[in-house]
Amino acid sequence: MRKTILLILILSILSIPVFGNNRSLVKGKQGSIKYEKQTTIRIGSITKNSIAEDRPVLKTPKKHITQREASQRGLLGWITLSPMPNSLVGHSVAGPVLTGDEIIVVTGGSQDFSTPLNNTYLYDFTTDSWSVGSNMPTALFWHSSAVCKNKVYVFGGYDGSSSYNTIYEYDPSADTTGGNPWTLKSATLPQTVYFTTAETYNDSVIYIIGGQSGSSFLNTVYMYDVVNDTIKTATALPISTRSHGSAIIGDTLYVWGGWNGNWVYDFQKGVISTGDLTTISWGSGPNLPISDSRTNGASVTDPASGTHYVITSTGNSGDTPSPHHNYTYTYNPGDTSWVRIADKPTIADNSDNLIGIDSVAFMTGGYDGTAATNTTEALFFASNIINAKTLKINTPTSFVDTFATISPSATVQNTGDSSATFDVVCIIDSEGVLKYLSYKTVSSLSPNDTANVQFDDWTTGTQGEQFNITVYTNLTGDMIHSDDTLKTSFTCGLPGGDFLVWDPTADQSSGPVIYNQLQNLGFNGDYCTDLTPYLSYLHNYSSIWVSVGIYSSNYTILDTSQEAIALESYLSGGGNMYLEGGDVWYYDPQYSGGHDFGPTFGINATDDGGSDLATVMGTSGTITDSMHFTYSGENNWIDHIDPTGAGTVIFTNSNPTYNCGVSNVLTAKGRIAEGRTVGTSFEFAGLDDGEYTKSDLAKAIMSFFRLNAPVFNYDAKVSAIISPPSSVIANNDYTPSVEVKNVGTQPIDFTLNILITNKGIPVYNDSKTYASFAADSVDTATLSDWHVPAEGGTFDIYAYISSSSDENPQNDTIMISSMASEWLWETIAPMPQPRLAHATVYDYDNNKFYIIGGTADGSTNSNTCFEYDVSSDSWKTLSPMPYALDWIKGTYVDGKIYIVNGYDGTNIINVLSIYDVSSDSWNTGSTPPEGTIAHGLVAYGKYLILFGGIESDLATPNKDVYIYDTESDSWVNGTDMPEGVYMLSAELIGNKIHIVGGNNGTANIDKIMIGTINPVDPTNISWEYGADMPSPNINNGGAVYDGKYYMLGGFLNDVASNEVWEYDPGAKSQWRHVSNAPTILTRNNFASYKKGSKSIYIFGSDTTGSWTASATCYKMTKLAYGINKNKQSITNNGIMSISGNPFNSKVEIKYSIMEKTRVSMQIFSLSGRVVKTLINSNTVKSGIHKVSWNGTDEYGDKVENGVYFYKLLIGKKQFTGRLVLIK
């Protein structure tokens, strides 16, 4: 009998909250679906057993099968699993261990073949997840490891200079209970070894095979007795080898491949004597078809036949391919040859990284021919593959007509080995609210056959309503779930309107601004980043606006692309188009394969340009007559464009003079109708509003397109959300404030609504009603206070108008996001001049900051030295630095400021500049060993530690470390970094250097690099990689406060950012997004913590990401809000703390009351239904109170797992928040 389903579990799989309106849903198979007032959901006979019930615990994401029928062993193929936390080479993998044989242990390794690591990573097969174990006592790579009696044993290894003869025992059960899991065993190997392999025999002894000692290749076999902790020498291999593969099946030890100064092809087979385990009778078997070194080996079992196989995969090769291969071979004992089966999707050699677990060969990390990798893959054997796959959602597509009856359909495939019967489920939701559910049964589908599944009819929604559709297969015993499900979205109503804005750029900086300006003018249109769904509907739009951006965030419209063809077709049909881009006119058509729009737009591009847009001037007698704008947007490689044919210059850069905007009228000859175009080489969003605004320009261009903004009789508009701001302080009150206008010709009745949500859950709503609001009237509405929850978070604030008479809904709604944190941003006195890429140094002896060097415009370097006095909030200009430099770092030690190197606009200046605070004078110190810039610099006692940066060729990242003694004025070498990196931020936490962000010459860094300084010898620094960063970052600012690292701004994923992230080395979730700056902050070294305070100071920086220097300075202060716990004084009404959230038995909520008042508190479900009343409008005295909830409803019954929210009413003030019940 088919297993039945509980809808709420389907919704949890799809992350759809169960709340919404009372609209009836469509009838589906086996009963009806309906919403009642309390949002009770019933589905006929569909009851508890979940679709997910049939799914095994092991997660198997995207599969890779290349030679599925290579043998008749029922090979399922390679599956990609969750990546290892770190990219490694030379590591060792052992397992499985712990309960149910679930855990695989990865130890040691390196990332560069020279620097050893001591990490321990644990992979859980049941959850496809990684965790971090306790570090090995010694950092090693090229060691071997094996499991015996549920513990891991690590043998020998190499630390980059020396090899080891040690044996370490790792007990993972101790690691899970807080004990010390690592033990150095008394027994040692007879000699130091590395490049060995280790194989366990009968869960009693481990053989350590071959390898290398010094420069000697070994044929030794050692036997380690785990119980007695003894080492014995077993019968040696006939042939010495290292970097080989090995495995044990039954009583036979198999050793193959490797290197001993030459490629080793031999297959060495040794029969272990059961009477004397040190006696091994060696013989030979069939050689591998390929020379194979730095490979690996394991044994696996075919569950169909019970046959045990030796397996090896990837390695170094002296044959073809060379030097690395991804071949996988198996050997059946007794056969006369090896069989090549499914090639591994990725190369991963140079590691002891393959183990067999029953019918699974597991492999993680290794060297891919270029660098260390963290890829994790497994090869599965199965007697009968069971899998059903969703190939395609056929209907609905991107757009459907309104209120139309459609039949959703999908194509599925049986990719298993036997005929299969399975269900296919289709779910449609809108904004998280379920709208439709239907499923059909596919019966007896033959292997590799496909089926088109037609679901029940469904009636679409209103114009503009958006839906998500999910289709997935539900096959009992399905082995691979990564291909079960497909999701897409669609919109009701065929696209069309006054305009379509297409912004495919990396940063989408201009498209949204264009869209908002056109919408605010009363035009109706759409915005997209992908033009593909709209290609068939372009002619439904009166105008198209395209922003392809400025280098390096630009997008190239390729010459033969569907996009280029469709846009040219649109223009030939009489369409109107605006196109902006810094490279689209000159560079892209000539050098990037871009389509040349110049002939259509009446543009002749004459030069690739530079970074010199300043003031954009309109042209007399054209649509831009008398307009002028200061330009502050992205400003790189701005094409110079001249008119040709009917083209007319409409914009010119003032200095230097060149044309940057052209309009054109396309004659109807050869075209269906007359079209019009406007092309610019700047971004619309970069024009600053002044006497003329972006709105004026948008209106002028639309008028040129013969499109005039509609005039409505009844049209109320939300023009701005004034409060709350984009950053708010947790546990504080804010008064929502919104500006509304009547832009119609007649008085109008309407209601202004304010809704605030957190992760889709409403936490505040209020409204204000307007009657006969006069035409052209403007009002700033203030509503009831909103109390920001103490736990903070990110909130979406919606201001929207509801009115039965409003004729233009396009301007009725505004939404902003606001982040709540404990950090307060305040402006302080501005710097005397704008600066970026300068040095920011704090003098903790005199409580002053110094801003030195930098640039104001990205091209002219400065030698200025400004002093900021914290106590007086004032600036003073000091003696200038001897050199005008940017890209500099500085630090303070004992009355002096040290600036190391710098860039003069052409070359790196290799100099140590020293500023004496007391005498206001400069001199120089001993020349730094290397000329680098964009490096890291910290002070450790009397020492400066200089590291990283970019070398004098301005291309090569540097990993050298140098120590400067401020007393002896001398430099010495320190321990090199694991890799070169520049444009980083770096600070000290204790004796640990933390490097956050930067670029390694190939990509932006996404991991923290940590260097532990030896207090006795600061030149000795132990480097390791720390936690993953939230995103790769570069050119960010850094500061340390209260033992935590604060990463400010930078380029997150190559996009200029205003985000502030906190890194807590001691926290489980180490990164936390804690605040947003009022502006973008980048071009590093602009921030510093003020000792003895709770404030981080920010001076200047690049506030656009395009070399726009700022003089604005900020103070970012950590607030201690709420209750003074020491004095227990009551400072406000509200939530003090929530203990045990998420909870499984009881959660306790503590709250404070300033004065005696009435209090009520209720728990609600996501649907808004009251689950439990905890306080029933009682009068409560002032003080600190607490209330608890044990996860039951009004009848004492346990409620389901999930998200609930509380509503606490103290007097007339409401406080809400989320509670998460986990059983």
TrEMBL record:
Keywords: Kelch repeat, Repeat. The keyword Repeat applies. It comes from the Bacteria. It holds the Pfam family Kelch_KLHDC2_KLHL20_DRC7. NCBIfam families: Por_Secre_tail. This is FlgD Ig-like domain-containing protein. It comes from candidate division TA06 bacterium.
